[in-house]
Amino acid sequence: MDAVKVLIAFYSRTGSTEALAKAVAEGAQAEGAEVMLRRVREVVPLEIMQKAPGWVENAERMNDLYQAPTEADAETADAIVFGTPTRFGSVTSELKAFIDSLGGLWFQGKLVGKVGSAFTSTSTLHGGNESTIISLYNPMAHLGLIIVPLGYADPVLFRAGTPYGASSVSGNTNIPPTEDELEVARFQGKRVAQVARALKATGETATKA
Question: How many domains, in total, are found in the chain?
Answer without folding.
Answer: 1
